[in-house]
Amino acid sequence: MGYIDKGKAYGGSFMSHMSQPTNRPNLSVHALQRVDERLIGEEAQKVISAVRKASAKYGTKSVGIIAHDLGSQRGQAWGNTSNGDLVVVIVRNGQVKTVYLRRATQTFDLSVSRTDVLVDMTGRVLSAPLRNNPSAGRRGSRNAPRDIFANRR
Fold this sequence. Notes:
4 helices, alpha/beta, about 20% helix, six-stranded mixed sheet
């Protein structure tokens, strides 16, 4: 797709927007390629902002971030490429490892993100951050996923 011209995004490189202090994880080459393939226009800037906020609050050791709501499905469901209406970012040990799309109707839990924390910066999917603890995932726990169809009935 090539939406970000050689890593340039809004007055500087995507990489420079995500660099240094501990609350601003570095971007791996793989993640930069995924951003270039999957995001258009100002979406990259919105994802950067969400990652910065989440990293400042939850750290950068092992965090899954539901960073942006695209508003509609992108890519073909059940295809061979990333598809969905949400942008998910995985941060490990101070580095953004990957950026991918996922449908809001799919399961979101720690086994999906394979991180210690999963946070929803969109407010659309999770009612509270999920953390790697014994009560995570139990029905009725404070970490229970939000029913995204509740308001549509």
